[in-house]
C-alpha cells in the first residue's frame, strides 16, 4: 500500500502548465478508488475549454489492454481459443508466406510477425487519419501474405495485430469491436464515456484537441494516423475505475494478460497479452502507454503495492514515459539499492543485410529505427533498463573486433560500426516504386547529398534528407512537428553494379522492396 499520506501539493505541481496551453489529467488509484487526481490546462485552445476529469482523450495504444481483456473473456466463455489460427475467424486471409499459422495469441502478444499496415501507410507518405481509412487498413491487413518475421519467433510491436483482433471480435456476433468491449468491460465497470473514434474528424462531445509545438507556439496535430488502429477514447474518471478494478481483482482476464509471453525458443518477453511487463524500483509493474502526436496516455499498476497511476495529455511534450515515473517518485520511497550505470558511449552501428540501425549515446540512450530507450551497463555490453516507456527488447554486447552483438526483439544480429562513405548522388537519383506495397519514392540530389520525397498520391508530399551510414545504406529521420519515424534505405545493385532497387526497414516493417523505375 502507499506509505503514508499523499502530498497532493507536490503532485499538483507536477501538472502545472502555463495559462492558455494544452494540459494533462492524472490520478493515483488504489483498489478502493482514487487517492489523488488533478487536471491542468486546456482541452481546446480555440474555445478556451479547461480539461476536467470527464474530458475525453484518445488513448491510442492504451486501447490495447481493453481489447486484450475482451478477447480473453471471449476465450474464457468458449467462443474462441487464444491458440486458434486467425484464419479460422478470418478465412479470406491468405496463408502467411512463412507457412506457419498466426494465432490470436500471436496478435495479442505482438509476435505475429505480420507487416504493420500503419507503417505501410507511413512509408507511403500517409501521416494522418481520414474517413474510411480504418476500413482501408483492415482491407489491407486481410489481404497480405507477406510477413516481416516468422510468427512466434520475434517480438515486433505493430498495430496490425489489433486491427485484426478488432475484426475477430466483431465477427463473434457484435455490431463492432466497440460493442464487444462495451459488453465485456465498459458496461460491467460503468465506463460510460469510453467509446471508439476511428476518425479525428468524427464529432464527439467533450473531446480534447491534440497539440504539438511549432516554434514558440502550439498548433493542432494532424499527423495522428495511429488512432485508426487504436480507436478508444476515454476519460480520467473512467480510467481510474478501470485501474481500480484491475487492482481489486475484478477483471478475471488480468491473470492471462500479465503472464509473460515466450518466443518459440522459450525466451520470455517483457510483454504479455496487451500489457507490458516491467519492474520499477523493485516493484513488479504492468500497464501500457500510448503516444501519437498530441495524444499521450498511460496506465501503470504496481499490484503488490496496491497502487496505480493513470495519465492523459493533449500536448506533445508531456509523455507517460516522463510523467508516470515522476508521479510514482512522489508517492513511493526511493530505492537506495539501485546501482544501474549507463554504458560508455559506443556510437552508431548498422546491420547491412537486415537494414537495422542503432545508436548508443552518452548517458545510456539507445536509439533504434523506431524509438529511444534507456540502457544500462551489463558486462561488456548493455541491456534495456526497466524503462517504463521501453516497448522492445534490445540487449547487446560489444565484441572484441568492435562489432555489436544485438538481440532486437528476439532476432540476433551482428552490427558493424556505421560509416559515412563518399558517394555520387547520381548513382541513386530517380523514382522507386514499391514491389511489396503500392508506393513511389523519389530520390534526388540536395545540398551535396540526397533527399527523398514521401507521399506522391498520399496526404501530401514531404522531402527529408538521407544520411549515409554505410555503403549503399542511408538513414532517413523525418523531421516535422509531431512526426518522428526513422527509416533505413538499403540500395541494391545489379550484377553490373547499377543501383536498380532498394529495401526499406522501419521499426514495425522489415525489408520492404522497392524497384527503380
Write the layout of secondary structure elements.
Elements: H1 8-14, E1 24-30, E2 33-40, E3 42-44, E4 49-50, E5 57-58, H2 64-76, H3 104-108, H4 117-123, H5 133-143, H6 160-171, H7 177-189, E6 195-196, E7 211-214, E8 217-220, E9 232-234, H8 236-247, H9 254-257, E10 276-280, E11 283-292, E12 295-302, E13 307-313, H10 320-331, E14 347-351, E15 356-361, E16 365-367, E17 372-378, E18 381-384, E19 394-398, E20 404-408, E21 411-417, E22 430-434, E23 440-446, E24 449-454, E25 462-470, E26 473-476, E27 487-493, E28 499-505, E29 512-516
Antiparallel strand pairs: 1-2, 1-13, 3-4, 5-9, 6-9, 7-8, 10-11, 11-12, 12-13, 14-15, 14-21, 15-16, 16-17, 17-18, 18-19, 19-20, 20-21, 22-23, 22-29, 23-24, 24-25, 25-26, 26-27, 27-28, 28-29
Helix pairs in contact: 2-6, 2-7, 5-6, 6-7
